[in-house]
Design goal:
By secondary structure, this protein is α+β, with helices and mostly antiparallel strands. The chain has 4 domains: about 150 residues, Four Helix Bundle (Hemerythrin (Met), subunit A), CATH 1.20.120; about 190 residues, ATP-grasp fold, A domain (Dna Ligase, domain 1); about 110 residues, Phosphohistidine domain (Glucose Oxidase, domain 1), CATH 3.50.30; about 220 residues, no CATH class. Helices cover about 40% and strands about 20% of the residues. The chain contains 24 helices and 30 strands. It has a 9-stranded mixed sheet, with helices on both faces. An 8-stranded mixed sheet has the order 14-21-20-16-17-18-19-15. A 6-stranded antiparallel sheet has the order 9-8-7-6-12-13. Helix 2 runs antiparallel to helix 19 and helix 3 packs parallel to helix 19. The radius of gyration is 34 Å and the shape is elongated. The two termini are about 50 Å apart.
């Protein structure tokens, strides 16, 4: 006689004649069922966590939200741990029936680990490389800046400063000598890099850590000897320029413009200390924020340093071989930016430069010159002092052109020659130095020109539409450095502390276009500066980010100090009070800064072993551990077999422990009582809803039946064809729902706990709830995925449900058509109310994915849902 037959016989005799042995067997059976249900619940929880991680990976790859390599590693670890738990729980449920799953897990996990970058140490790389020996192929050893400079000197025949590069090997030796790598990684991993406040604190601690470290003796000796050799050749009055040259700079499809530090007019004896300052600048707020936004991990950008003889410039600046603003308007021209003295005032945005425009013909023809009033010049400090000094200029001096037309023509030829050599437009930093009474043109840097951004030159755009009154103009003029239009609240920033208050989507207004403001650009809609030109570092970053930007707008901070919503039309060089959609239409959205980055490509490679699903048919001989090629395959296999073990035809827990629910509905529900979920002993194969003592299940059922379902919405031809196409193309619409679940929906219950796994048409859901007297333990969670319509309609339905649940106190995460929601910490009645709301939505959001592109009908359904939910709450 079976266990349940004994229980039935016992129950027929009535309570007056208890059978202790039968009661013991019943309790043992329930204890075993509780244990198995607990394992099954843990497997389901791990399945949910694994699928959430996979959805997160897909969302990161498809969205523009920045993330770091630490997030990639953590995501892989989290998904791997969840999948491993599923394997462990399934083997525990099955008596270790699937030992091959461990091999499949190890195989997939090893493939994912192999995707993570591992930097090889350069054992044979010298600590110092003379500039004369450096070529483009040395870029991985000396960084892009020094590699390009060596190439220009050797193969283009242009003058460059003398000097040497301190290589990646020196950087690695320094980090290893002081144990800095692990210490830095730990601090970065524990910091929220999206919080500027946290980044400021992290930056200060990391820079202090680097500057307080000692140089390895062999590196200190090599540096001192190389500098001494330069002094012997160039004379005792030698001054140095130490310039950052990070590996990957200008070589990862990003500019790093102004992100790292350079020090000018350095005394030779200070070279070692200043080298450490350059290394420390890798951890400035600007540099760390930039790498995070561009998806570049810390280890992908080791810092090399160029040690060069200081050029005592009479004038300097930046030349663009192809103007990135004019090119968007179909005008091909060379643009030169020039200031008196050192070119630092151009790249740092400290003043508005002289601008010379040339044709790109051979020879170039001068098209236009715009001579600005320069208030000062930067020069090397005189005598024994070191550093850069600012010398004020009189109005007459400042109004004079800092180079003549002949020098400008020579610069235009040089820029075009460098473009021809590199076969792409160039951004050239230059200086004019007096040698033996004659001016000599010196190339300080040549790099690929960043042309990103929806740009148009100021003054060449169409006039403002007649619908915009003149009274709306807050400011007009200036120089367009990155075109486009955007709207947002005006925010004037004058000091670093203001960065912490900057509103996302605001228009940043500053006095000086200094690179220190770069961390705000990913949050900004647009920016405006009183100074600066197109060749400044901040302008380059704005174009790289596709951010409308207007520089050299006089008195911008005072004109725009009142704040409020405004529209910047950088193409027309005008700032308007209020928002004008007609000016915003047609402009490109900011580009996905993560696209093609090392971090994103690493995640993309890992995702190939994480998210694809190859096991589609449970009846196929290929549905086996040996066929698992991804973590998704393993989760599918584990979920399928676990449900089969718990509820299938050959379940080794007596299937009769599951009772069919009698509630007068067409859908089949089966109920498994873990402990005290029935109000009385139920001996037959059917349990009446009135005998369910589980409060969460009763609440869910009350919500499901509170408002009669009117049936699926009638859909137009497009919605109907979307369902037909999706059904025809996707034979396994619900990859997480096993075949048995297509026919049966299961409740597992006790008096205070419930988990429902159900399939309604083409979507699959899980509802779990604990509702007792301890509010700190109470929760209700909801997982929903799928549908029969196309992806866009399914995703819109998920977002609609999310918005309804968020209004009722749920914490919701939507990733594509998958929704995860949880409400916790409420008392029992408040928890059960939210379960009733879920029950209502389960029934009434069925099949509405078909009409989710019909805005009016969606709005009507939303109103009905909100009204019905209000009615549920009123009861």
């Amino acid at each position: 006689m079976g266990v349940l037959d004994s229980l039935r016989n016992l129950l027929r005799r009535g309570p007056a004649q208890p059978d202790p042995e039968a009661l013991a067997r019943e309790e043992a059976l329930k204890a075993r069922l509780r244990e198995r249900c607990a394992r099954f619940r843990r497997l389901l929880s791990a399945n949910k966590a694994a699928l959430e991680g996979m959805s997160e990976a897909e969302a990161l790859l498809s969205g523009g939200h920045p993330f770091g390599m630490d997030a990639v590693r953590a995501l892989g670890t989290r998904v791997g741990a969840s999948v491993y738990q599923m394997v462990r729980e399934l083997n525990a449920l099955s008596g270790n029936a699937y030992p091959e799953l461990n091999d499949a897990f190890r195989r997939v996990h090893a493939s994912m680990e192999a995707c993570l970058p591992r930097r090889e140490h350069e054992e044979d790389v010298p600590l110092i490389l003379p500039l004369a020996d450096i070529r483009l192929q040395h870029m991985p050893l000396v960084g892009g800046k020094m590699a390009n400079l060596g190439e220009v000197a050797a193969n283009v025949g242009m003058d460059v400063p003398e000097g040497f590069a301190v290589t990646v090997a020196a950087y690695e030796r320094f980090m290893l000598h002081n144990g800095l790598r692990d210490a830095i990684n730990q601090r970065i991993q524990s910091t929220d890099l999206e919080s500027l406040d946290a980044v400021f604190s992290l930056s200060a601690s990391l820079q202090q850590l680097v500057q307080g470290a000692s140089l390895p003796p062999e590196l200190e000796s090599a540096l001192e000897e190389a500098v001494a050799d330069m002094q012997r050749r160039l004379g005792p009055d030698l001054r140095l320029a130490l310039r950052s040259s990070a590996v990957g700079e200008d070589g990862l499809g990003v500019t790093f413009a102004g992100q790292y530090r350079s020090e000018l007019d350095v005394l030779p004896e200070e070279a070692c200390d200043v080298w450490k300052e350059i290394i420390a600048s890798k951890y400035s707020v600007t540099a760390m924020s930039y790498r995070f936004q561009r998806g570049i991990p810390d280890e992908a950008a080791p810092m090399c340093v160029g040690v060069l003889s200081m050029v005592r410039a009479e004038a300097g600046g930046v030349a663009y071989s192809r103007d990135p603003v004019a090119a968007r308007q179909g005008r091909e021209q060379v643009t030169l930016n020039a200031v008196p003295g050192l070119p630092q005032a151009v790249v740092d945005g400290g003043m508005t430069p002289d601008v010379f425009t040339f044709s790109r013909t051979n020879p170039p023809e001068l098209l236009e010159r715009q001579i600005a009033v320069k208030p000062f010049r930067l020069d090397c400090a005189p005598g024994c002092a070191q550093g850069v000094r600012r010398t004020p200029l009189s109005p007459e001096e400042g109004a004079r052109a800092c180079i003549n037309d002949g020098q400008a023509l020579h610069l235009a030829r040089l820029a075009l020659a460098l473009e021809e050599f590199y076969n792409e437009p160039q951004d050239v930093e230059w200086a004019l130095e007096m040698r033996d009474g004659a001016s000599c043109l010196v190339v300080l840097q040549s790099r690929p020109l960043s042309e990103s951004g929806d740009t148009a030159e100021a003054g060449r755009a169409e006039p403002l539409p007649d619908s915009i009154p003149a009274s709306a103009i807050l400011a007009q003029g200036g120089m367009t450095v990155s075109g486009g239009a955007a709207a947002g609240p005006l925010f004037v920033a004058r000091k670093d502390a203001d960065m912490l208050s900057f509103p996302r989507g605001g228009i940043l207004v500053v006095e000086r276009a200094h690179p220190r403001w770069a961390p705000l650009l990913p949050q900004a809609a647009a920016m405006i500066s009183e100074t600066g030109g197109m060749a400044g570092h901040l302008a380059s970053v704005a174009r790289e980010y596709g951010l409308p930007a207007l520089f050299s707008l006089p008195d911008a901070c005072s004109l725009l100090a009142d704040g409020g919503m405004a529209t910047l039309d950088a193409d027309r060089a005008v700032v308007l009070r209020g928002e004008y959609p007609e000016l915003l239409a047609g402009h490109e959205k900011p580009r996905n800064l993560m696209q093609g980055s090392p971090v994103q490509e690493t995640l993309r490679s890992m995702a190939e072993y994480m998210t694809p699903l190859h096991l589609l048919d449970p009846e196929s001989p290929e549905f086996a551990p040996a066929s698992c090629r991804s973590f998704h395959d393993i989760t599918r296999f584990c979920h399928e077999k676990a449900v089969e073990l718990m509820f299938g035809e050959n379940a080794d827990v007596d299937q009769r422990a599951g009772k069919q629910l009698k509630a007068g509905v067409k859908l089949q529900y089966w109920v498994v009582d873990m402990d005290d979920g029935f109000s009385r002993p139920v001996t037959g194969p059917v349990v009446d809803l009135r005998d369910i003592a589980c409060e969460p299940m009763q609440a869910l059922w009350a919500g499901m039946t509170a408002v009669p379902w009117a049936g699926p919405p009638s859909s137009g031809a497009a919605g109907f064809m979307s369902v037909v196409f999706e059904s025809a193309m996707n034979k396994d619409l619900e990859s997480t729902a096993p075949a048995v679940m297509a026919e049966k929906n299961f409740f597992i219950i006790s008096s205070k706990y419930m988990i429902l796994q159900a399939r309604y048409g083409y979507h699959f859901c899980t509802v779990e709830c604990l509702a007792g007297d301890n509010r700190h333990e109470n929760f209700v969670s909801f997982q929903f995925k799928g549908g029969a319509a196309d992806a866009q309609r399914r995703e819109r339905r998920a977002r609609l449900i999310a918005e309804l649940l968020e209004a009722e106190g749920f914490r919701v995460d939507v990733r594509k058509d998958a929704l995860f929601a949880v409400a916790e910490g409420y008392d029992k009645e408040e928890t059960l109310l939210r379960v009733r709301i879920l029950g209502y939505l389960l029934i009434h959001t069925r099949q509405i994915d078909m009409i989710m592109l019909e805005e009016a009908r969606v709005a009507a359904y939303r109103t009905k849902f909100e009204q019905d939910i209000a009615g549920l709450k009123a009861k």
